[in-house]
Write a structure and sequence with these properties.
The complex is a heterodimer. Chain A is mostly helical. Chain A has 13 helices and two strands; from the N terminus they run αααββαααααααααα. In chain A, strands 1-2 form a two-stranded antiparallel sheet. In chain A, β1 and β2 form a beta hairpin. The chains are: A mainly alpha, B alpha+beta.
């Protein structure tokens, strides 16, 4: 457990450091920005680390009680985004996703992510025995998941919707929902999403361009194509820090979603593989912590957070390598964006908190287990039998 | 559902994510390593910019700095049909009159179309419309495009932003032009054979093909290296907005303009000579007529012309024989103008003196079984008279007295049989048969200019050597090279080839040559009012297919003032078609006189004859000239 925590902290710290360095390199490309992004990100980073420490210090189990209020708050914030005057929630790049209060820009959907995961973890533990039923396993959680997703969808932020749907879906499965109950709503969701795509020529174009990036490089495929060029130009060791060409006006979002191609161009495959390895390590550590957690809430919360970080990183890397169609999701710990960084660091803090409790619980639990087995060798299989019965009913 | 089941699913999730990441890692490896070289080239295409910096080909100037050949900037007009879109007909209508092109053809060219490329079908973005459009015309075209009306102004205001932007692009960027330079000869045919002409070739510079002017003939060809200069280039990178990233400039080479070549040619004299030759051409309708004006003291060529001529602005419109510089490239049997060459050698050696007499056999003399004729029957003639009356028999006898070796070596000493070294392409050296190849009659033929093949220039330079106190000069055409700011880069000085005959011998032969240009000499037509002229006529029967035919090469080469020569002028008329008037003294002297008078007043040459007191105007002019 100690080594899992060490590796996790090391990987997150490494990604943060790389992110700040690359953000500075990225910002250099724009004379109006300069070090401004770096300062902003560093500030958010400090806030994020504080949140991380706080989350790690406090007992995650006390969040059980706060899960539902947090989710309600998230929903309210998401509604605020829609109804608040444009001065506070302006339209940026054709979408209203932010609440702007003075110098602080905050994205409620980021907060909603963590709130939803917390709620699902709480729900999964609270109704553990009923998760295999259609009503408790799919319909009720589906209701509040659907509410949050709908609110994010209308911002519009289709990428985040899709990502959050996948994450919460995964978490429901882990919590115990049955595949046979899970698949029909999933298919419906995919069909609905496909339908909405079909009626949105802009999104449709993006998808089609993904199928042939090179031919659409003049228009929608522009960014994806140049991201490919950037990665390709980098080679093994890259062109040297600060020497990216594609960040100079070819990749518009080189400091946010498309920062990995800049890393690849400047530092080469060595750096991009390092990033991938870090995320794999974070997933392994997160999974380990979840598995070793002392209770079901910890298991679900830990795996939910791991799933969130892993999925987001995977989609981002998939997009910038043109493996997936273009969807705007930041690369955790690296991309510029305060709300996301804060959410991610707070999540890591929760993982650490789970790991801390697991440390305490591990020895007690294992000895309890040993005692149990000695006293009643059939207790374990009994539990399993109960679970199986529950699963079938 | 038990915790164990949940843990299984967590592990499954982790494995799925892990596999996905391994897949992405492979994708990164594929992009960054396997496709590295391919993508790197494509990436560079977006940023790398090679700009060619145009250079200017040097001008060819006459001795007064007037341009004989110059380069002007012109535009090669091109279009991007993709930006023109559906407005191709409107654009064609606006541009056709300016470009002097057919509207229908232009509209067809401007129509957007697709072309096959390695990457598939792509819209055509480049169509050449017209080459070498003057810059003023190009400005009009730009203006016309900017003010292009494709719809009513109200309609245009109602357009969507994207359509407005497209319209702006159409007006500003659809029609573009590349700068190019074009060679222009402002004097049209003036000095055409000297200047030559240019062609264009493509040179590759850093992977780019650029058109380059290259000299094909004449001075343009010989001095191509000095004239051409070299283009500069800028190898740099740009960002997504097309702005240069200065810190990534890898190569920055300034263009070097070509040097200006300043000739010894004086365009005024050149023009006068060409005019006189043209008049001769009109009057006698010969095959060709050529003329050279040289300063004997330095060998500077002030004018050199041949008719038929051509216009170097459109060299292709004239036949090759018109483009040939006959003065240096054609071989002739010089005839009587050659006589002073051998005789002056005899005078130098002391083989004969001017006062020695020879029996000229009253017109017919058989030597070596062949008859030798004079045009008039002469008895005893002094050497001076032999030259003055141009007696073939007398000259042959002088040659015989000198001996074959001596005749041969004097001919070679005057520069025959070797190139004069004028900086023009295509010069030939001529043929002087060596003594061991001579036939029996050669010793009698060569001194009268038969059986040797020389160029017109060699003949002129040989007479110049006599005028220049016996010193043969190398003909000089280029005075200096200057850069574009007029600073002298290289200056050429007169080059003596050798002292052929002694000054005394030269003076003696000049006495005889002065007799030629006198009232009872063969070139009385060449006499000038204010100057004594020395010279020699020539009427050489032409050889065609080994036999003499009744075609003549009539020439006169003279210099003046005879004792202190300033100019030597040669006029050579090839085959005057008038069967009665073909003597050099008749055909060539009028042109000589015209050019000589023109030059004398233009160059303010000091007269050496007392002006006729009957004319009031002349003494004043003379005194002015003297004062100078």
């Amino acid at each position: 457990m100690r080594s899992a925590v060490t590796i996790l902290v090391f990987c997150v710290a490494a990604l943060l450091a790389l992110g700040l360095v690359m953000l500075y390199s990225s910002g250099m490309a724009n004379e109006k920005v300069g070090a401004q992004y770096l300062v902003m990100q560093a500030t958010w980073c400090i806030i994020g680390l504080a949140a991380c420490a706080l989350a790690a210090w406090l007992d995650y189990r006390c969040l059980k009680r706060m899960a539902v209020p947090l989710l309600v708050m998230a929903a309210i914030l998401l509604i605020f985004v829609m109804v608040l005057p444009h001065r506070i929630s302006p339209e940026i790049n054709g979408a209203r996703r932010w609440i702007v209060l003075g110098p602080v820009r905050f994205q409620p959907s980021e907060f909603a992510k963590i709130a939803l995961i917390l709620t699902l973890a709480w729900y999964g533990e609270r109704y553990q025995r009923h998760m295999s039923t259609l009503r408790r396993g799919i319909l009720i959680p589906g209701l509040f998941i659907g509410l949050i997703l709908a609110l994010i969808f209308v911002e519009p932020d289709r990428g985040a919707t899709l990502f959050l749907a996948a994450t919460s879906g995964g978490l429901l499965l882990i919590a115990g929902a049955q595949w046979k109950h899970f698949i029909p709503p999933m298919l419906t969701g995919i069909a609905a999403f496909g339908f909405s795509l079909w009626h949105d020529p802009m999104r449709m174009k993006r998808i089609l361009s993904w199928l042939n990036v090179e031919e659409t490089r003049q228009e929608v495929g522009h960014q994806a194509y140049h991201a490919m060029l950037a990665l390709g130009a980098g080679g093994w060791t890259g062109m040297g820090l600060g020497n990216s060409r594609q960040k100079l006006g070819f990749i518009p979002f080189h400091h946010t979603d498309f920062i990995l191609p800049v890393i690849g161009e400047e530092l080469g495959l060595v750096a991009t593989l390092f990033v991938v390895m870090c995320f794999i390590a974070i997933i392994v550590c997160g999974t380990w912590i979840a598995l070793k957690s002392s209770d079901v809430f910890g298991l679900l919360l830990g795996s939910g957070i791991t799933l969130m970080i892993g999925m987001q990183a995977m989609i981002n890397i998939g997009v910038v390598t043109s493996t997936l169609p273009n969807k705007g999701l930041p690369l955790p710990f690296i991309s510029y964006g305060g709300s996301n960084l804060l959410t991610m660091l707070a999540s890591v803090g929760l993982l650490l908190s789970i790991a801390r409790r697991a440390n305490l619980a591990e020895s007690i639990l294992s000895s309890e287990d040993a005692d149990d087995r000695r006293e009643n060798p059939f207790r374990g299989p009994d539990r399993l039998a109960v679970a199986q019965v529950g699963g079938i009913s | 559902m038990g915790k164990r089941q949940q843990k299984k699913r967590v592990v499954a999730m982790a494995i799925v994510l892990g596999i996905a990441f391994l897949g992405l890692a492979f994708r990164l490896f594929d992009l960054q390593v396997l496709r590295h070289s391919d993508l790197k080239v494509k990436a560079l295409e977006f940023t790398q910019r090679e700009t060619i910096r145009k250079h200017h080909r040097g001008d060819i100037l006459d001795c007064n700095g007037k341009p004989l050949a110059t380069s002007v900037i012109v535009k090669n007009v091109e279009a991007n049909p993709e930006l023109i879109g559906k407005y191709n007909e409107e654009v064609a209508l606006a541009l056709a009159p300016l470009l002097e092109l057919d509207v229908a053809w232009l509209a067809e060219q401007l129509k957007p179309s697709m072309i096959q490329r390695t990457s598939g079908l792509v819209p055509r973005q480049w169509v050449p419309l017209k080459k070498r459009v003057p810059t003023e015309k190009w400005e009009q075209i730009e203006q016309a495009m900017r003010n292009l009306v494709v719809m009513a102004p109200e309609e245009e205001k109602a357009l969507k932003p994207t359509e407005k932007r497209a319209l702006h692009a159409l007006r500003r960027r659809a029609i573009t032009a590349q700068s190019d330079q074009m060679r222009v000869y402002p004097g049209q045919t003036l000095a055409a054979h000297l200047l030559g002409f240019v062609g264009s070739t493509n040179v590759t510079l850093g992977g780019k093909t650029i058109p380059e002017i290259v000299g094909v003939e004449g001075l343009e060809r010989v001095l191509n290296t000095q004239l051409r200069g070299s283009p500069g280039w800028l190898s740099t990178e740009r960002d997504g907005k097309g702005r240069e990233i200065v810190r990534l400039r890898s190569e920055d080479v300034q263009p070097r303009d070509g040097l200006n070549v300043v000739l010894t040619i004086d365009s005024f004299i050149q023009h006068g000579l060409e005019l006189a030759l043209a008049e001769t051409m009109a009057e006698y309708r010969p095959v060709s007529v050529s003329g050279v004006v040289v300063r004997p003291a330095t060998g500077e060529i002030l004018a050199m012309a041949t008719i038929p001529t051509f216009n170097p602005n459109q060299p292709g419109e004239s036949p090759p024989e018109a483009r040939r510089n006959r003065v240096i490239a054609d071989l002739i049997d010089p005839g009587s103008t050659f006589k002073p060459v051998v005789v002056s050698g005899a005078l130098h050696d002391g083989t004969v003196r001017l006062t020695d007499t020879f029996d000229c056999e009253h017109r017919y003399w058989f030597y070596g079984g062949h008859p030798l004729r004079d045009t008039h029957p002469y008895g005893l003639l002094t050497v001076e008279e032999i030259i003055a009356k141009s007696s073939n028999i007398g000259t042959a006898k002088i040659g015989i007295r000198m001996g074959a070796e001596s005749v041969y070596s004097w001919i070679r000493a005057f520069g025959f049989g070797s190139r004069s070294g004028i900086p023009l392409p295509g010069e030939v050296g001529g043929i002087v048969p060596p003594v061991n190849k001579w036939s029996k009659v050669s010793i009698a033929r060569l001194p009268i200019g038969q059986g040797v093949s020389v160029t017109r220039l060699q003949m002129t330079m040989a007479i110049c050597a006599i005028a220049n106190r016996g010193q043969l000069m190398r003909p000089m055409l280029v005075d200096r090279l200057e850069d574009q700011e007029g600073r002298v880069v290289a200056e050429y000085s007169p080059q003596p080839v050798r002292q052929v005959i002694s000054e005394a011998a030269a003076r003696q032969i000049t006495v005889a040559l002065k007799r030629v240009v006198s009232t009872n000499g063969t070139a009385s037509g060449a006499m000038l009012k204010h100057y004594t002229v020395a010279g020699k006529t020539g009427t050489a029967q032409k050889v065609e297919n080994g036999t003499y035919v009744s075609k003549y090469l009539s020439s006169f080469i003279g210099f003046f003032p005879a004792d202190e020569p300033e100019l030597c002028i040669a006029i050579i008329v090839d085959d005057p078609s008038d069967r009665n008037r073909y003597y050099g003294g008749t055909v060539a002297t009028p042109a000589f006189k015209k050019v000589a008078e023109l030059c004398a007043s233009y160059l303010n040459i000091r007269p050496d004859l007392n002006p006729d007191p009957g004319e009031g105007e002349q003494p004043a002019k003379t005194s002015v000239a003297r004062a100078r």
